[in-house]
Amino acid sequence: MLHPFKAMRPTRDKAYLVATRSYISYEPYELEDKLENNPYTFLHVINPSALPEASYEMRFNAVRGRFDAFVDEGVFEMDEQPTYYIYRQKTPVHDFIGVIGLLDAQSVAEGQTLPHEKTLEQREMLFEKYLDITGFQAEPVLVFGKTNAAFDALLAEVQKDRPEYEFSSTDRYLHQLWPVPVGRVQELESFFASAGTKYIADGHHRLASSVRVANAHPENPLAQGVMCMFMAEQHLNIDSFERWMRLEDRVFSPKDLESTYEVWPIDAPAGDFSKYNFEMYWEGQWYALNHKQKSSDEVLATQLLLDTVLRPVLDVQDERNDARITYMRQGEQDLSTSMAKQGYGLGFRLPPVSVKLLKEIAHNRGSMPPKSTYIEPKLRSGLLLHVFK
After folding, report:
1. Which residue would you say has higher pLDDT here, 23 or 349?
2. In angstroms, rounded to a whole number, what is the distance separating the alpha carbons of residues 74 and 117?
3. How does pLDDT run across 178-206, given as a tens digit for each residue?
4. Burial (CB count within 10 angstroms: exposed 0-12, middle 13-18, buried 19+), residue 159
5. Is-contact 279 267, C-beta < 8 A?
6. CA dist 185 to 11, 86, 168, 263, 276, Å?
7. DSSP class of residue 310?
8. How confident is the model at residue 161 (pLDDT cuts 50, 70, 90)?
9. Residue ranges covered by each domain of the chain
């Protein structure tokens, strides 16, 4: 169930200045520029470079202190009535829309909200401590599921009104947000009460840590909710990550794969994975790899590559931490020239994971290898906050 809530959010005139990408997406010089030239960016609140020598507890308390200072200054205000929020993000190539509300933390334990990735306990515990001390959630977890015509019609109707927020960011993304009118909240509550299984698209560690906080504070009803954005599964965009590898002193040849794969040269990466499983770059040449027994729609491509190439042929035992491997978001651009100049002589392009396969993995309680999906939309921090203490 996704519930309405009273969001803490920036005033209309400051929303475009406050909202930010995740701080890890900024280069150091970009982060420094934002902090120096924008007094309202939410990066000031979550500033990772502040108190670098201090303990985690001191740094997390400082985050809460900086947030309280923003509230005292009037940058943030609490809504008077609980509601849902419709958020639209229009990129140069995609148009995303969803509903932001509070997901029952208990729904994860009850199997009503399903993950497709395993989380690292150490990261869970660290972010649990962060949430417990700061007392707010600042970036929605992304979930998806099935919708219906009534849901789509309600969203379209609300969007006829002027957005509360409407601004473009420097990456040429348009952001719009509408608080759902009080008279329409009940319709969305009814939809979410019977919407069925929800699937986590992005934010597995944030969700798991929020569930830990909920379990640690059963006396606090506000802590039982996890801020999420729900969107229709057909609107989700899933891209792949390319794998690039430094061969170092290892001897490799495409002939090493011929017992398992049909291997043939291609002029350039085409992304037509209906005809083969992977595209491979090696020594200035692109190749197509087609497994002799497994078609591309039968298996998870990242797992197949790991099991049949990276582990047995290239001795990759820990794909997450092997220093020879780097990951690049996959697009139409051929990255081989740039990657080869950096010393990455071997590269793989993979088909994106389908929503159907992602749901099957979630239902089977499975998990994917690291960097199996790049899922959009990526949501802004600081645009809406769920303050639970």
Report:
1. 349
2. 39
3. 999 999 999 999 999 998 899 999 999 99
4. middle
5. no
6. 22, 11, 28, 56, 48
7. I
8. very high
9. 2-238+375-387, 241-351
The neighbour count for residue 189, using CB atoms within 10 Å, is 15
Closest CA to 18 of 32, 38, 33: 38
| Phi and psi based region of residue 352 (left: phi greater than 0; alpha: psi -120 to 50; beta: remaining) | beta
CATH class of the domain at 241-351: alpha beta
Per-residue pLDDT band for 270 (boundaries 50, 70, 90) equals confident
In this structure, what token pair is assigned to residue 182? Answer: 């009080």
Tokens of 234: 């057909």
Give me the numbers of helices (H) and strands (E) for the chain, helices first please: 12, 21
Compute the distance between CA of residue 211 and CA of residue 105 in angstroms, rounded to an integer. 5
Residue type present at position 221: P
- The span from the CA of 148 to the CA of 196, in Å, is 12
- Which residue, 235, 232, 237, 87, is CA-closest to 149? 232
**Tokens describing residue 276:** 């083969």
pLDDT tens digits for range 325-371: 999 999 889 999 999 999 999 999 999 999 999 999 999 888 888 88
